[in-house]
Design goal:
The strands form 2 sheets. Strands 3-2-1-4-5-6-7 form a 7-stranded parallel sheet, with helices on both faces. The chain is elongated. Helix 1 (10-25) crosses helix 14 and helix 9 (182-194) packs across helix 10 (215-228). By secondary structure, it is α/β, with parallel strands linked by helices. It is built from 14 helices and 13 strands.
């Protein structure tokens, strides 16, 4: 079988990459759109195609597997070429948000989602249940193995090891769309930590910029806040290659909507989603995870930070196991999709 993979932004690419890697290990031909994070993190020996060649390949591929991006539509365009030629397409969801919007321009044959919550929320948004299949999240399958490698912090880690997952909220809606931006969230966090009851002195926050953020802008944002706010924590901007190890070494994790918050929750870390003034229901999924602190009012952010710091890490959650076979699940569904498509074509020819 010959599968074509297409993705742009980091979230979708990292969800789809494990499926491509598994397909390659099983001797399948992996063709892929030469684009975005999927290209930079994919294997050199895969068959990389520019957009024109990928569009042509989509018309003959057994299945096109794709993920959507916030602004980048190239992967969806490739899937459109497959659909126009009657080839099956599978959309892999990478986060719990915007279920219907992701497939507004193209309804896939299969919409692979991470868990039952994603399925329920997708149906609530109007997605046809007939196309939904729960597979787990291929990009999270590595989490348990990483925990064995990197270890876990002690329950009473003092001072706490704090990890902040940043994201470009301003360009993804900002104050007018989401109700807040990353500047407001950073200020609340720094103010809260500056006022925290900590006998060990100023705390340290390790900050992971989102791949779509300008790292120096993130650094400057926090440098300005630490200069302005008395007792502010020390800020360390994490290198891209150290994000995974930093997540596992953290005793406390905070951010907005990043999937890193879901991973931290799975690992048993006290997790805080700061979204002051949130005005989009689609960004409330983390509130449905028992144990995650979810703060959405303009007031009380400093108190929320204090309460979060008082919590202690615990053992990983059973939900971690939901994702371990996700890549295989997506691959099996894709194979079945290809077989059904072939049978349908054979029947049409026979008629």
């Amino acid at each position: 079988m010959k599968f074509l993979f297409a993705a742009g932004d980091v979230g979708g690419a990292r969800a789809l990459l494990p499926v491509a890697r598994l397909a390659a290990t099983k001797g399948m031909t992996v063709c892929a759109l030469d684009h975005g994070t999927f290209r930079t993190e994919g294997a050199a020996h895969w068959h990389w195609l520019n957009p024109a060649k990928a569009a042509a390949q989509a018309k003959v591929a057994d299945v096109v597997l794709y993920a959507t991006s916030v602004h980048d539509t190239l992967a969806t365009q490739i899937a459109h070429h497959a659909r126009a030629a009657g080839r099956p397409v599978l959309h892999l969801l990478d986060n719990w948000s915007n279920y219907a919007a992701r497939i507004a321009s193209l309804v896939p044959d299969v919409y692979a989602v991470m868990d039952d919550l994603a399925m329920q929320e997708a149906i609530a948004e109007g997605v046809d249940p007939a196309i939904l299949m729960v597979t787990g999240h291929p990009g999270i399958a590595k989490l348990a193995g990483e925990a064995d490698i990197f270890g876990t912090p002690l329950p009473n880690t003092t001072p706490p090891h704090i990890f902040f997952a940043s994201e470009p909220a301003a360009i993804d809606g900002g104050a007018r769309g989401r109700g807040y931006d990353e500047n407001e969230v950073a200020r609340i966090l720094v103010q809260g930590l500056a006022q925290a009851d900590n006998n060990a002195g100023p705390l340290t926050v390790k900050v992971a910029p989102h791949p779509r953020e300008v790292r120096e802008a993130v650094r400057a944002r926090f440098a300005s806040l630490t200069t302005e706010i008395p007792g502010a924590p020390k800020i360390v901007v994490v290198a891209p290659e150290d994000v995974r190890s930093t997540l596992h070494s953290a005793s406390h994790v905070v951010g907005m909507t990043s999937i890193l918050l879901y991973e931290a929750w799975l690992l048993g870390r006290p997790t805080l989603s700061l979204q002051p003034g949130l005005s989009i229901d689609g960004l409330r999924t983390l509130s449905r995870r028992k144990g995650i602190m979810f703060h959405t009012t303009k007031q009380g952010g400093i108190r929320a930070v204090a309460e979060w710091l008082n919590r202690r890490p615990h053992a990983p959650l059973p939900d971690l196991a939901l994702h371990q076979n996700a890549a295989q699940n997506v691959l099996d569904i894709s194979r079945d999709l290809a077989k059904r498509s072939k049978r349908s074509l054979d029947q049409q020819k026979a008629e």
